[in-house]
Structures are given as C-alpha cells and as structure tokens.
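Reopening: DUF7344 domain-containing protein still failing for me.
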Amino acid sequence: MLGRLLGSSPVSKPIALSADELFNLCRVERRRHAIFILSEVDTPIQMRTLVDEVTAREFGPNATSNQRTTVYTTFYQQHISVLADAGVLSAPDGPSRMLHPEENAEPLAELLSFVEDVSE
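Support: Ran it again with your exact input. Result attached.
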C-alpha cells in the first residue's frame, strides 16, 4: 500500500511477516539496531560483537560494563529468539555464539531507513 502511494516500494524484496509481527519486531530500539547491524554484514558475527555495537549505539562510546551486561542479557534471553523467528538471523550454535544474517535483515533495514527518512 505504502509503495503504491509513493510510486515505488521502500524495500528491495518482500518481507514475509504480518503487519502485527512487523510492528512487534520493530517496536524495540535494540532490535532495530540489531537489524541495521545484521543488514550490513555478509558473514556470521559473534554475539558479543553484536552486543558491543548495539551497546555503543544505545549508550555511546563510553558505555559501562553494566550497560553492556544489560544489553547482552536482553539479547540472550529475548531478542535473539524474536529476531530468529522473524528471519533476521539464525543462531545454529546457540544464542551466545555466531549469529548468521538471514533473508529479512536487509529489507527490514531498508524499511526502517525509509520510515526514519519520512518521519524526520
């Protein structure tokens, strides 16, 4: 619908999620950061690399170890499984190991960028 209104689609390929799934996935800033990070990599990344990057984006370069621990814990307990269910990543060796970007990472990042652009 949005693409028809604007004359083009804001994403390069369809996202196989319902509107409710999409809204739930993107309502949390940490997951949005993770989507952007995973869309920028072509190879698997370590969980700690993702956590470090999300922590830096959320709290800045001088983030404390307590802030990093909080981000790690929420990813381990919640966000990794939500992102995996949404086709953004896979964690075949468990959520604390290597994270593999999946098919929805790039179009979701494109959609989020589009939303940021039109909402400024």
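Residues 46 and 84 are 15 Å apart (CA to CA). If you still see a failure, please send the error message rather than a screenshot.
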